[in-house]
């Protein structure tokens, strides 16, 4: 009998925990994202969509800028997870690569700019604790973390763009 009660309590407990997680989202990140999306859209309307698109086209004309400067600006200004919306300024064929480069950068930016991804700051702080315990400065670590992140997002962006191009070509070839 106790066994059945434990199973029933565990079963309902799983849903109670899910409900608490959901309420955390409803009272935490969801309102922030709605306000952030509204603010960004208002800013784009205020600046002018043509100007923003023109700036984005200049920033994404060359793959080096497309997978370094553009994702950096997105992550720095819009933070995680809103930064991925910058992909709206890219052609469809470049969106997967932009996402890949931006998602690979949300951790390395936290050393110098913790506002960009505060939920994942614990990763950097774990490494930083070891460096601090050794009596070393965190500045060089944060800078190296950022620079390696920029190199990694460039590599991932370029590789993903090549993979996407090949997959689109294969799709067109098979449709013909």
UniProtKB/TrEMBL annotation:
Q: Which UniProt keywords apply?
A: Membrane, Transmembrane, Transmembrane helix
Residues crossing the lipid bilayer are 22-44, 64-87, 141-159
Under the heading PROSITE patterns, the entry gives: PTS_EIIC_TYPE_5
Keyword Membrane assigned: yes
Report the InterPro entries cross-referenced here: PTS_IID_sorb
Q: From what superkingdom does this record's organism come?
A: Bacteria
PANTHER family cross-referenced by the UniProt entry: PTS SYSTEM GLUCITOL/SORBITOL-SPECIFIC EIIC COMPONENT (PTHR40399), PTS SYSTEM GLUCITOL_SORBITOL-SPECIFIC EIIC COMPONENT (PTHR40399:SF1)
What species is this protein from?
A: Oceanobacillus oncorhynchi
Give a GO biological-process term.
phosphoenolpyruvate-dependent sugar phosphotransferase system
One Pfam family matching this protein: EII-GUT
Q: What is the name of this protein?
A: Glucitol/sorbitol permease IIC component
């Amino acid at each position: 009998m106790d066994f059945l009660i434990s199973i029933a309590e565990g079963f309902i407990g799983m849903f109670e925990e899910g409900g608490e997680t959901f309420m955390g989202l409803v009272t935490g990140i969801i309102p922030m994202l709605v306000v952030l999306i509204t603010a960004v859209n208002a800013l784009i309307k205020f600046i002018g969509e043509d100007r923003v698109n023109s700036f984005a086209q200049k920033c994404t004309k060359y793959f080096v800028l497309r997978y370094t400067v553009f994702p950096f600006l997105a992550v720095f200004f819009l933070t995680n997870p809103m930064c991925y919306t910058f992909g709206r300024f890219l052609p469809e064929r470049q969106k997967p690569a932009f996402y890949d480069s931006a998602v690979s950068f949300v951790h390395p930016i936290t050393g110098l700019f913790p506002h960009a991804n505060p939920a994942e700051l614990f990763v950097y702080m774990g490494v930083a604790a070891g460096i601090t315990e050794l009596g070393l400065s965190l500045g060089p670590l944060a800078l190296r973390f950022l620079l390696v992140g920029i190199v990694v997002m460039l590599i991932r962006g370029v590789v993903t763009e090549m993979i996407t191009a090949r997959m689109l070509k294969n799709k067109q070839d098979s449709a013909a």
